[in-house]
Amino acid sequence: MMTSKDPGTDYIVRATAYGGFVRAFAARTTTTCTKAAEIHQLSPSAAAALGRLMTGVLMMTQDLKREDHSITAIVKSDGPIGGLTVIGQGDATVRGLVSQPVVESVYSRPGKLDIGAVVGSGTLTVMRDLGLKEPYVGKVDLVSGEIAEDLTYYLAVSEQTPSAVSLGVQMDQRGVIAAGGLIVQLLPGAGDEVAERVEQRVSGFPEVTHLMSEGFNPHQLLDLLFGDPDIKYLDVTPCGYACHCSRERMVRNLVALGQSELEELAADEKGIELTCHFCNQRYHFNSQDMKDLIQAIRS
């Protein structure tokens, strides 16, 4: 499918350029990042860090073949933010959380949040669950904590894919005002001339959030980036924040605790309440619910 139509929502576009030797993804994730910030009551730096990682993972999910396949990215770091966890599904939905949702804002220059300072040093682990017995797992040290550079390094080292990643979340007093990103990758057969051309255009490209706040959509970002009249737009995929939790999943979590633990919980007449870390949905189980679970385990 070839299209340049803007669906008017958060979306990801996939394209090829320069004779098919370069592929690219561009995303608008403003609403997605706003929802995450509201659910978790994130401070500006936490919202920007999580938004960047969610945007990057969403674009990476476009390589997944099935909706139930997933990519999980986990940042463990020594900065004030503590760490990040993001899960992207093959249906172009994403969910995430931050270890420390409220951290003091640090700026690299006026108006520019220094995300590397709040993330700090650590590791990035990426797990691709493709429905096989074991997920593919890659792990690298963080390069800068700025997220885009860290994903670039991961793609080059763990997946042997030369890439350029640009991610951004622009904030003001009201919250997220623009969020999105780009991933550009050289395909097999791309010669030095194509590689140099891509490097030159990427290195001089304006910040994604600046362009998006000026009204650019993902298609227009790629048009501006490549300047290729023969660019081919392949897919347009709406994306968004969505959690896949359910009462049934919570039941499985309870069963995994084992009979003795469930018997202790069943002794509380008030029951228990489980809260999903990704969406804050609450699930209540009363004492009888717990006894029914114990009976099911015994039988």
Task: Describe this protein's structure.
The chain is of the alpha+beta class and 299 residues long. The chain is built from 10 helices and 15 strands. A 6-stranded mixed sheet has the order 9-8-3-4-5-13, with helices on one face. Helix 1 (30-40) crosses helix 2. The mean pLDDT is 93.
Task: Walk me through the topology.
Elements: E1 11-17, E2 22-28, H1 30-40, H2 44-60, E3 70-77, E4 83-89, E5 93-98, E6 107-109, E7 112-113, H3 115-119, E8 122-129, E9 136-141, H4 148-158, E10 163-172, E11 175-186, H5 192-203, H6 208-213, H7 218-226, E12 232-238, E13 240-241, H8 247-255, H9 259-266, E14 272-275, E15 282-285, H10 287-298
Parallel strand pairs: 5-13
Antiparallel strand pairs: 1-2, 1-12, 2-11, 3-4, 3-8, 4-5, 6-7, 8-9, 10-11, 14-15
Helix pairs in contact: 1-2, 9-10
Could you list some keywords that capture this structure?
299 residues; five-stranded antiparallel β-sheet; 33% helix; alpha+beta; 15 strands
**Radius of gyration of CA atoms, rounded to a whole number:** 21 Å
Low-confidence stretches: none
Proportion of residues in extended strands: 25-35%
> If strands are numbered along the chain, what order do they take across the biggest sheet?
9-8-3-4-5-13
Helix content: 25-40%
Largest sheet: 6 strands, mixed
